[in-house]
Amino acid sequence: MRYIQPMHDDWTTRHPVQAAALRTAALINCLNDGGSVVDVLREHGEAEPIEVSAADLTEMRAAAVKLRKVFAAEDVDAAAAALNELLARNAGWLRLTSHHGRTPWHPHLDRDDDAPWGEWFLASSCLALTVLVWDRQRPPGGVCASPTCQNVYITQGSGLPKRYCSRRCATRERVAAHRAATRA
Questions:
Q1: Is the separation of the CB atoms in 76 and 133 below 8 Å?
Q2: How many CA atoms lie within 13 A of 177 on its CB side?
Q3: What is the fold, at CATH topology level, of the domain defined by 11-140?
Q4: Do residues 128 and 20 lie in contact, with contact meaning Cβ atoms separated by under 8 Å?
Q5: Which residue, 66, 37, 40, is CA-closest to 52?
């Protein structure tokens, strides 16, 4: 079953769209670099037991490739177009679920509460990223600008657009640029 365990009564403030989008980025990165999907799901509040088969991983990797196009979008129009294509080809009807009374009511785009992991990942990610585009009127994130990194990231807050997935990548690139400039 795909549901997040409620930790306290105010579930909607604990489980915002931003959290689902961050989970999306973490899963895409994990699936790209061979990390533990179960660990990422656990870290993002998925209820035990978490059983992910080899077939599930294959479907999730295919979904991650599709979702990466949203992160690679150059502008909001391209991000919206990528999401519209994914929604048209992969999402079910918008429905509300409480996972048989285990959580407060919330929207889903997968076909049912026991949908395969790949379907759930793609549908829940599309829903979260769609809300971010709608709310912010900009792409929901990006792909790290470091040539040695392929991670995606979620843009948080306002201000200048982010270029790197982490401070570590930004610092590594800044140091490399400085060293190249001092050698020249």
A1: yes
A2: 8
A3: Jann2411-like fold (1.10.3300)
A4: yes
A5: 37
